[in-house]
Amino acid sequence: MRPKLRGWQILLAGLLVGALARAVPAAMPPVNVIEHGIPVPAGEAITPSATVDADGRRIIVCKLAAGGKTSYLFIDAESGETEQLPAGLSGSGSNGVLMTPENAIFDSVGGYFLRLDIPTRTVRRLGRVGGVIFGGGFVRTSDGTVYGGFQPTATLVSYNPATDTYTDHGQLNEESWRQYLRPLAVDASGWVYGGIGMERMQVVAFNPATGEKRPLIPEKNRKRGYQPVIFKGTDGQVYARADRYQFGGVLEIYEDGWGWHVLSEGRATPIAEPPVGGVRQVNHVFPDGSHFSGFNVLDREVLVHDVGAKEPRRVRFSYESPGVRIYNLVAGPDGRVYGSTGNPLRFWCYDPAGGEFWDRGVAPNDGHINQFVRQGDRLYGITYSQGYLFEYDPSRPYALEQNPRLAHRADEAGEQYGRPHAMLAHPDGRHILAAGHASRVLLGSGMLIYDVKAESGQIIDRARLMPEHGIYSLAALPDGQVLAGTSIHPSTAGTAGPARTAMIYRYNMETGTVSGQWPLSPETPAVRELVVAPDGLVYGLAEPDRLFVFDPVSEEIIRSETLAGYGGIAGGQAPRCMTIGPDGAIYALFQEAVVRIEPATLAHRAIARPGEAISAGIAMLGDRIYFACGTRLFSCGLNE
Length: 640
Hints:
single chain, 640 residues, four-stranded antiparallel sheet, disordered N terminus
């Protein structure tokens, strides 16, 4: 348990800084906070690979991402003994790595291009990649040079081990939107080709000898897509196409897109289709021909298939983890706190009575669950990026694929609300609503309305709502109509639309129409949260730190003020940062504090300061509020 401050100590601290609402310096101890621990002490395994160490012993090496940190895990295939090497940089970096014949791994973390030497188990920073979020693709040429492609700027870098030279080749293509550079391929003449998505696909040829960058897709043929298809065939030729977009079950083929081409010496020649398949990178086979399968970093085990053995050996291993980021939490009907993490996606439970955690997988385990809500005695969660809706019954035992069960899926969900920011358990006791942004590129949001009794869902297309606005928050009025707080932020890899400020709009559940809309002034990019208080007024939080009050009767915003001293609004991808307490007060999560707001006067004060950034919430059980700071679960009392 963290140390607590008494009332006079809090008052003294407030006087020293001028007011109770002012931020507490990071060096001060936390106020009114209990830390409960890490719900999921695991990590995400990226590209586990079979190789040997300096002594010739078989080992499995994988990049381990957990809690915003990266390490490299070395697992002895015989004994399961492990060694963990920190990357020494923050962030998880690339979502893939490249192992080379020199027994080295190339990676990117924290904006650096890295080389991990496996025999010596050392990490070297080869060079800085400015402004990079994470890497996209890697490729190795015949002379051993390794190229890496990075987003959001489609930047290409390379490292030549023969000359020990790192080179930043700059952007392959310049656009006003975020560009994902993947995959990469090299032809027999040494030209490098990079595929770029998502707003408008492009394939760029790069000549290492001259530095020339040559876009290959004409502007009229550039279409929306995750990435072009580029691969090196078994015949040594490079093939590419960019005439389709596929997400989930939705496949869109562009008749005027850029079909199959063979790429050679910086030129693209149309073909009917590739005559051969692609060269596959094999990572699971050891030099002696043995291999591994079933690599499970969450359960800490792997199957090793020895040469000549009839059955595989189950090898157990261990590692240290700062935990996995908590995306959401919700109070269950059984007095427990539930939530999930990403990446990887794990469903977890905390029992305040015993102080115990458990965590399990969810199937299908794509992406992460952005938010949970409670409807009756069930919990419902919605996932990024497919828009799956899950139902969990806490009264029944956990069972993979059965509880939680996949309650609703639709091919078009990813395009309508694939990055779900908002969920609502409608007070009619029957419906669940979910909305957000498209998973990629497209503006606006559709809305899922799921009937828990009929076990069926209806998707309202964005065109029937406010097509230029995403949805960050939902709240139900006493008459059953729904208010949506919007966002003008573009979807990932997309571009901003014409809207200049977020708004509140009213959706009529019976008629299926928008029956009113109210833009916010002064301008704000997003309404992060909405709650309906006992006094009938709607209280909202707008970016970055503004509290406003909307009167649904007079249909106007009647009050608005900045809440200074608490940091920005907490909540990540799915805000859920405000709730009504049993005492009728409003409780809100900011990055630096849990704040109590009096509805009648808007008087506000911090009731808890954890001393680190609050990232997700909000769940109320009894007289305690539960919230997350990164990978750890905390709670505070309703009174200081």
